[in-house]
Amino acid sequence: MMLVIGLTGSMGMGKSTAAARFADHGIPVFDADGEVHRLYEGRAVASIEEAFPGVTRDGRVDRGLLSARLMDNPDGLATLESIIHPLVRGSREEFLEHHARAGAEMAVLEIPLLFEVGADREVDVTIVVTAPPDVQRARVLGRKGMTQEKLDALLSNQMPDDEKRRRADFVVDTNRPVEETAAEIDRLIESLRGREGRVFRPAAGGRAGGQD
């Protein structure tokens, strides 16, 4: 059965860089953040507008307006998650089903809140990317529109990095040249090849692991 890998880490830790390396090896990657962006432009728009009137523009969610609304609404994040999480879960299951039937040896789920939402129970292996706090903050504060206040608010909703590292099967340090991080991921991929997946089971009638 296809091995399902959960890739996570707090913001600014290098998840996208790590995910890209898996993709370079032809390993399919599900980008949870990217899926949320698509939902904000499609299936989730009506529900979010109903819950937070005035945060959509031209048929899509205005992330700036939504962020401002959430800052003023302590219960808003839970409401938003109740809308988004089930949709992301559905897309994730479709992704796994598709690639299992296609015979993929392994697949990566890049999920920032992997442990926070309990998605670690749905993967065979967990990988956490990490970097020192000062490096993390420098990376995130360098992003357009990011402020110290926003960063602190976002980090308060995430599990501390040391706890994620404690729970992980593998930890990848991204506080070094990209080439060194890539080489470590290459070695990690090789160590995972041939490992049998046990968590995901395709729907009846499908094809998994290249077998009918």
Main sheet properties: 5 strands, parallel
Number of helices: 9
Helical coverage, percent range: 40-55%
CATH superfamily of the largest domain: P-loop containing nucleotide triphosphate hydrolases
- The appropriate CATH architecture of the largest domain is 3-Layer(aba) Sandwich
What structural class do the secondary elements suggest? alpha/beta
Q: Outline, from the CA principal axes? A: globular
Low-pLDDT windows of residues: 206-212
Assigned CATH class of the largest domain: Alpha Beta
- The number of distinct structural domains comes to 2
* Residue share in β-strands: 5-15%
Strand runs, count: 7
Describe the structure in brief.
The chain has 212 residues and is α/β, with parallel strands linked by helices.
Structural commentary:
By secondary structure, this protein is an alpha/beta fold. The protein has 9 helices and 7 strands. Helix content is 47%, strand content 13%. It has a 5-stranded parallel beta sheet with strand order 2-5-1-6-7, with helices on both faces. A two-stranded antiparallel ribbon has the order 3-4. Helix 2 packs across helix 5 (76-101).
Structural topology:
Blueprint: E1 3-8, H1 15-24, E2 29-31, H2 32-39, H3 45-51, E3 56-57, E4 60-61, H4 63-71, H5 76-101, E5 106-110, E6 125-130, H6 133-141, H7 148-156, H8 161-167, E7 170-173, H9 178-192
Parallel strand pairs: 1-5, 1-6, 2-5, 6-7
Antiparallel strand pairs: 3-4
Helix pairs in contact: 1-9, 2-5
